Every structure is written in structure tokens, then in C-alpha cells.
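Notebook p. 47: complex prediction with adenosine-5'-triphosphate.
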Amino acid sequence: MINNKESVVKLKNVTHIYPMGNGEIRALQDITLDIDDDDYLAVIGHSGSGKSTLLRMIGALEIPTQGEVYMEGFNTCDIGQEDLVSLRAKTVGFVFQDFRLLPQLTALENVMVPLLPYEKYNSARKKAMELMERVGLSNRVSHRPGELSGGEQQRVAIARALIRNPKVLLADELTGNLDTATRDSIMELLDELNCQGLAVVVATHDQEVMAHAKRRIRLRDGAII
Ligand SMILES: Nc1ncnc2c1ncn2[C@@H]1O[C@H](COP(=O)(O)OP(=O)(O)OP(=O)(O)O)[C@@H](O)[C@H]1O
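Predicted complex, C-alpha cells below:
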């Protein structure tokens, strides 16, 4: 494996095309972008402009149709599936638009899940407890997702994304549909984590969220404008 480490994640001329019936949808067009250690990037653009697809590329959840994605210097298109899974798990944490919490598990168990293959139960539980405290939910550990508000579910999803100490947090539509106070508390938490060295990439329509970012890119029809 050749390692050209510069940025945590580097996209080089990434184009992504989804097949659609007889045609195709060009979701991303020739994107070149670096995510550095203490970056705080807001990805903005209209619905369908390619924000979620870009986040999936940054997180190496999908292989681009054209171009290259480097994570910690490794070309994610070249390394094997097993190495990719492990590299991705160490490097990025995802907060999905729909949270994707497991409904049958408690909030605490949801946060622990990504750590269980690697650490003993009690150690994973301790770390999950610390993170639940960090996101202001130590009084909600035994609630199941269905018993939590949207903002609380999002905070559980943030805690889960952080449990393996990623270098980059990727958050899709962060704070969508949240009340102002909850949104502000989530933004404060991300500012704090960013100050401690976590790179943050958020896809958002929210002006307030944009204002917290150190830089912004706008997508239109899959291209940076
Ligand atoms: N799995 C898929 N198969 C086919 N087309 C897709 C797929 N995912 C996304 N697309 C298309 O790719 C384009 C970009 O979608 P994407 O979800 O990245 O946009 P977005 O900016 O995140 O939108 P939103 O703000 O509504 O979440 C859209 O035209 C969308 O319909």
C-alpha cells in the first residue's frame, strides 16, 4: 500500500454517476477537496445538489465512478475491502440524516455498538457513558430511540459517531428540524470538539450552522461553485 499522507481525506477529481433507468445521474462532477486535521467545513447547496453523495465519498462509503479518494494517505480505491473497513472505522464517524439508531437497543447500547468488536463490554460501556455525558444525555441512557426527541436521537448518533475517536466527523443535515436551543447546544459541542482537533464536515441548509464553519463550499448540480 502506498501512503501519500498529507490531509486526513483528499478527493482528487471525483465524479460520481448513479445509473438511472436507461440514463444516468451525474451526482458529483470533478470535485477536488482536502479535509485537514482541524477543518470545519460546511457543504451547502439546494436539495439534490450532491451534498450527501459528497459526504459518502469523503467517508469512503462508496467508490467514485472516476477520480480518487485518499484517506490518511491511502488510496481507498486501491486497498482491499478489509483494510478499507478498518481504515474507515478508525478515521471517520458518521451522523446520518435519519440517525440510523437501532430501535431495539437503549441509547447507551447504540453508542457502544461500534466499539464492541474491539473492546471488552465494560470498557466500551464506560466510554459510551462518558460520551453520553458529553452530549448532555446522561439521564437518557436507558431510553430506546423511540422514547427520545429528535434532538436527543441526533445527540446519541453524534456520541456513537465519536466512540472510536475518529479524525473526521461527517454529519448529514445536522440540526435539520431541531429547535433553536437544541441546535445551539449541538453546535457548541461541535465547536468544542473541533477546537480539540476533530475535523468536522457538515452538510446543511442552516445559516447558523454555516456560520460556525471555518470554510464553506457550495454545490450546484454536483460541482463546487
Ligand atoms: N442511490 C442513488 N441512486 C440514484 N440516484 C441517486 C442516488 N443517491 C442520490 N441520487 C441522485 O443524486 C443527486 C444528488 O443527491 P444527494 O442525495 O447527494 O443530494 P443532496 O444535496 O444531499 O440532497 P438533499 O439536500 O435533498 O439531501 C440527486 O439528483 C439524487 O436524486
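Notes: Helices lie at 51-58, 81-91, 107-112, 121-134, 150-162, 180-195, 207-212. The chain has one domain: 9-224.
Next step: compare against the earlier run before touching the bench.
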